[in-house]
Amino acid sequence: MQKSKIISTKDNLQVIYEDNHIIVVNKRAGDIVQGDKTGDKPLSDVVKEYIAEKYNKPGNVYLGTVHRLDRPTTGLVIFAKTSKALPRLNKLFVSKDISKTYWALVKNQPKKEADSLTHWLIKNPKNNKSRAHINEVPDSKKAILHYKTIKALDNYFLLEVNLETGRHHQIRVQLSSIGSPIKGDLKYGFDRSNKDASISLHARNIKFIHPVSNVELNITAPLPKDPIWDACLK
Hints:
The protein has 234 residues and is of the alpha+beta class. It is 15% helix and 32% strand.
């Protein structure tokens, strides 16, 4: 039986970093970053409510969404609090001047302890799923990631993943394509779901130069509360 998803509210929002221009939140697995056909309240609206209450702001709160994480994924999401910061953050993402590190739990150990994976991905909007191809095919997009195994647990392996490109479901489909689907990810070949409907993929760390102050930020998100994630830190 699945546990009900825990979602973020203005009262339990996990704010990891905040200043006048940006706010960085640790997303829960039940959160959706932007609104979609489900009609569920997006994390962007929750952050606006948090800002409105914390700073006693009447009227509309400005908030710019810079990037997204898949709904069942956890970890760091950056939002812009000012119209000055938003285009600068967008530019950092386009120019790949933001370093993002993910942690992924997989059951099957990859054949290589560390490797770079290159695939050509095609997204199928009907089932919201991507397929990885070894060679370029029509309408495909090149996807590159780098991984290394950083811990062996009793039944799982912890991989550290760095993306060179940002494609739809990229980490999920690329790890699945080498026989190492992410724990809980039924869509990409794992045999059972996690109890809370999450997948064990966490946006762990993010490094970038602040778009206004020009100070380097190095932000790490706490792991979800779960015995297997806890074992990763022991």
